[in-house]
Write a structure and sequence with these properties.
single chain; alpha+beta; 14-stranded mixed sheet; 16% helix; binds iron/sulfur cluster; HcyBio; Methan_mark_16
Length: 420
């Protein structure tokens, strides 16, 4: 039975009277034996952060004086190829383009679209190289303040269902689902997903988060355009868009994998509590969310299963760096493997993603981090292995979820709805 409307919630938000809980705060109440009532909660905020390959940017980039070239045939931003168009911008000296978060630099195999998007949003200077349809090359630099349009579109973000991956074979496998080439057999698990905090885990049939809903995408206020590609009722995901000029570079970036650089984003969504059943959907606990363990070769063969309790309960958000243990090795394997470039000779905590590769890789325990382990049965044999790579960042997800809660409490984020 409906106990309030969106309009009533928005009136409370505008007056600063709305009661807002994060999905983890709801889960904690449930774990402690409480049974929250819809009468007492107006909004639940949810969030996720992880590799989201379906991320692209639509940009309008100044290149040269008007009339300098007719049309762009090819364009590189920091060495990363984009797709000029669809508008030809004939004789304008500027280029409309689409560029993928999964694209790779032609000059630097460790640099890709995710790193570029972070650089753009962070206001860094971007090198532009254009080949015109007449074959002339134009080089310039630009930055976000000169880029006319910078709109991010996510074609399939914030999935509800993830798989985890292991390698059951002797061969080494390159994949976007692990930070490095994955060794086997059963040396470790690579996981994704923010469990009980994940937006669609708290709204599995998209009653509250659907076309037209406002969201935060990398801290910029955007909207859900619709269901993402390959979205289904069983495995939903979201198509989103937001203005990159309002994004916070902390929440997005590049993440190197065994198959080259990828892109990560952070998404937060609000669930208006209009009735008890909507609130009860947010009672989900990590230990109750199944995470299939899948063969990284081909990704569809399910070998067993674990749950998000094993992934996130009791695990560390971030590694601890012990510089006294560092032997200054000639080649630092941590530096080579750190997917976000957070470790050079010092640890940049702002760039760190909490993936765990440093603690897994350093032979001298210069990094430590509790990232959990799993056990499951394969062919009647019990297999145990550590979680060696997390491709989702629970810390950033928590931060953005809390930021959305603050915005609603302060009357800065008014809800809209797809179902009223
Ligand atoms: S591998 Fe470990 S001990 Fe060696 S330089 Fe890197 S952090 Fe230091
Ligand atoms: S957890 Fe370690 S390897 Fe992963 S991003 Fe942070 S410093 Fe780099």
């Amino acid at each position: 039975m409906r106990i309030r409307s969106i309009e009533e919630i928005n009136k409370k938000i505008k007056k600063g009277d709305a009661t807002v809980l994060t999905a983890e705060e709801v889960s904690l109440l449930v774990r402690e034996g409480n049974s929250p009532k819809a009468e007492d909660v107006d909004v639940v905020t949810t969030g996720t952060c992880g590799i989201m390959s379906g991320t692209a940017a639509i940009l309008h980039v100044p290149v040269a004086d008007p009339g300098a070239f007719k049309k762009a045939k090819n364009i590189l931003l920091n060495g990363i190829p984009g797709f000029p168009g669809p508008c030809p911008n004939e004789w304008l000296g500027s280029v409309d383009l689409i560029i993928y978060g999964t694209a790779h630099s032609i000059y630097d195999s460790g640099y890709g679209g995710g790193f570029l998007f972070k650089d753009i949003v962070g206001g860094n200077e971007i090198e532009v190289e254009v080949e015109s349809t007449e074959g002339e090359i134009f080089k310039s630099t630009t930055s976000i303040k000169d880029i006319g349009t910078a709109q991010m579109i996510g074609t399939r973000l914030a999935f509800k269902n993830y798989n985890s991956f292991t390698n059951p074979s002797e061969e080494v496998v390159s994949s976007i689902f692990h930070a490095i080439d994955m060794e086997g057999p059963f040396k470790g698990l690579s996981v994704s997903g923010c469990g009980q905090l994940n937006p669609l885990q708290n709204d599995p049939v998209m009653r509250s988060i659907c076309s037209g809903s406002k969201i935060l995408l990398n801290a910029s206020e955007g909207i859900v355009i619709g269901r993402g590609t390959r979205s289904s009722n069983e495995k939903p995901n979201l198509m989103l868009t937001a203005d990159m000029k309002d994004m916070d570079p902390h929440y997005l970036g590049g993440f190197k994998t065994g198959a080259g650089p990828e892109v990560f984003d952070s998404v937060a969504a609000a669930i208006p509590i209009l009735d008890q059943s909507t609130l009860e959907q947010t009672f989900i606990l990590n230990k109750d969310i199944v995470l299939p363990v899948t063969d990284i070769r081909g990704r569809h063969k399910v070998l067993g299963s674990t749950d998000y309790g094993e992934v996130w309960e009791g695990s560390d958000e971030r590694p601890v760096y012990h510089p006294e243990n560092c032997l200054n090795c000639e080649t630092c394997i941590v530096r080579e493997r750190c997917p976000t470039g957070a470790y050079t000779n010092i640890l940049n905590t702002q760039r760190c993603f909490g993936c765990g590769m440093c603690a897994y890789s350093c032979p001298n325990n210069a990094f430590t981090m509790e990232s959990g382990s799993v056990r499951f049965d394969v062919d009647d044999k019990s297999i145990g292995m550590p979680i060696i790579c997390r491709q989702s960042d629970i810390k950033r997800a928590r931060e953005l979820t809390a930021e959305l809660k603050r915005k609603i409490e302060n009357g800065k984020f008014i809800l809209n709805s797809c179902f009223e």
